[in-house]
Amino acid sequence: MKKSLFLFVSLGAVSALASCGGTPVASSVAPTTSSTSAPTTSESTSEGTSVASTTSIPEDQKITITYKSTTGKTTQPYLEAYLAEFNAAYPQYKAVAEYYSGSYDALKQDTIKGFSAGNYPDLVQCYPDHVAEYINYGKGVNLDTYINDAEIGLSAADKADYVPAYLEEGKQFQVSGTYLLPNSKSTELMFWNKGVLNGLKLPGVNGGNAIGQDYFDNLTWEELFNVLCPALVTYNNGLEDAKKILKTDQAYHAVFGYDSDDNLFITLAQQYGYNYTSVNTTTGKGSADFVNDGMKSLMKTFHTAANNGYIISKGSAGGNYTNTYFTKQNTLFSVGSTGGVKYQFDDANPMDVGVARIPHAEGKDPKVISQGPGITVLSHGNDETGKLRAKGAYLLWKTMTTAKNSLNWAMNSGYMPIRSSNYADQSYIDANDETQYDVKTLDRLMARSNIYGQKLTNELFTSPVFIGSSACRNAGSAIMTYALTKGDITDDALAAKFTEQYNNAAKNIQ
After folding, report:
1. For residue 4, what pLDDT band results from cuts at 50, 70 and 90?
2. Buried-most residue among 3, 206, 282, 341 (CB within 10 A)?
3. Cα gap 321→339, rounded to integer Å
């Protein structure tokens, strides 16, 4: 049996998995760090603060720190281990995880609903535009107080080790300070069915040469819709039912699948140089700029492609992530987050899955969205207990993202490392050597994804953050879903949808 990618990164710090290959499940052995055993006597923590023994602090007197996230079952064991490490190092606190099964936007809405009753977490996983709203509600905590603290702050070496862009992302708000901390960073990749597509020769495609990695690395939307998709449909129609490469046994099927409607809308605006949103640098007020002829034209192009059976999205395919169709071979391509790479593989139908950059605009430089949630600390008041909770929440994030734990998280979650040292760590390099894994395995796919993601750092982009930018994202998503839903759409109907969604977004902008 080949070696498994799901390794733990430090022999003295974490234990190895008992099995190899396959997707880890919630019952998988979680990393056991050297500090998960609670101290029995007073000792100094890594920050130099003396903490009392756990036996001297009754459970009902500990300060509970709640971290609420969308962490899936396959990675919950790792998170639980980091929390156990924190609880052992800081016995005056009790860190607990709350797992949310909805979207990030739904998590934001639920968090805001809890503000009035005081029922909300100390840390919450979120995107920058969500943080802007938390700040507006007076719940955002300026973390510079802790980051720069002489006793518990980040050392100069730590500050230099976190990827600079990820730390800077936490400062892009209308008030000065750091309000978002890096956690799980990702981008989007195009996953393709390498087992059936690699080496395929199609009339009129790629000059008659076989298609493969180089072809897909340089794929444009124009090539995809005007050349490749028609050729693949024609080729597939000519095959016997038992040999078809594109199956139609599910309710939704198409050549190409794109998981995120909002990311697709935003990325298209960036790739083609059309407007999406902007911020007035003097007033700090945002603006919804996506009602323009360029975006309307693109939506018409994508609507035609959807009607031809060339593309589906989560929004246009019953609200299901398109990887569910990709792994059943009801699509040949699936664009999704690198953080969700595990979902692009199914043990029940193992495939050789290739990775490539997402399609880009013809004649333009490739652009791919920088995404992945960070963590923000929410204020529970300025009294002594409130301050201790905020401090504990920061210390929990610090524990979760030590060099050791951030490396462990990157190796086992599919998210990109948030520390520069992680990329250079030999265990990370060794684990991502795809040649050591069997072809049709998740291990090989994860190795490919981790290595390929590093090639895109100069192509990443972010959108402006302001009060209402989240509403703009939702508006873009609604327009994209509308365009990708099969049926007849007139120019007037499309214009009306743009106007409707602009109004929905504009009323939330401050």
Report:
1. very low
2. 341
3. 14
How many angstroms separate the CA atoms of 86 and 54, rounded?
12
Query: Per-domain residue ranges for the chain?
Result: 43-180+373-414, 188-371+452-506
Q: How far apart are CA 151 and CA 439, in angstroms?
A: 49
Token pair of 66 as six digits: 């709640």
Give 340 or 30, the one with higher predicted confidence: 340
Residue 243 and residue 494: Cα distance in Å, rounded? Answer: 39
Tokens (6 digits) for 491? 């120019």
pTM of the predicted protein model: 0.81
Enter the DSSP assignment of 207. Answer: G
Positive or negative, the CA dihedral 116, 120, 123, 126 is: negative
The answer for residues whose C-beta is within 8 angstroms of residue 468's C-beta and 6 or more apart is 286, 288, 505, 506, 508, 509, 510
Distance (Å) of CA 77 to CA 27, 278, 309, 409: 7, 40, 40, 11
Q: What pLDDT digit, counting tens, does each position of 246-272 carry?
A: 999 999 999 999 999 999 999 999 999
State the sign of the Cα–Cα–Cα–Cα dihedral 191, 419, 68, 119. negative
Taking the C-alpha atoms of residue 205 and residue 260, their distance in angstroms, rounded to an integer, is 28
Report strand pairing: 277-279 vs 63-69: unpaired
| Residue 281 confidence (pLDDT) | 81
State the number of CA atoms in the 13 A half-sphere of 232 facing the CB: 28
- Up-side HSE of residue 110: CA atoms within 13 Å toward CB? 17
Q: Exposure pattern of 176-215 as b/e (b: 16+ CB <10 Å)?
A: eebbbbbbbbbbbbbbbbbebbbebebeebbeeeebbeeb
User: For the structural domain made of 188-371+452-506, what CATH number should be given?
Assistant: 3.40.190.10
| 260 close to 358: Cβ distance less than 8 angstroms | no
Q: Topology of 43-180+373-414 in CATH?
A: D-Maltodextrin-Binding Protein; domain 2 (3.40.190)
Question: CB atoms < 10 A from the CB of 364, how many?
Answer: 12
Longest C-alpha distance within the chain, in Å? Answer: 76
Using DSSP bridges, classify how beta strands 460-461 and 368-369 pair: parallel, antiparallel or unpaired. parallel
Closest CA to 332 of 305, 311, 308: 311
Q: Which two tokens stand for residue 462?
A: 């972010």
The answer to whether 65 and 96 are in contact (CB under 8 A) is: yes
Torsion angle defined by CA atoms of residues 456, 172, 407 and 159, in that order, rounded to the nearest 10 degrees: 120
SS3 105: helix
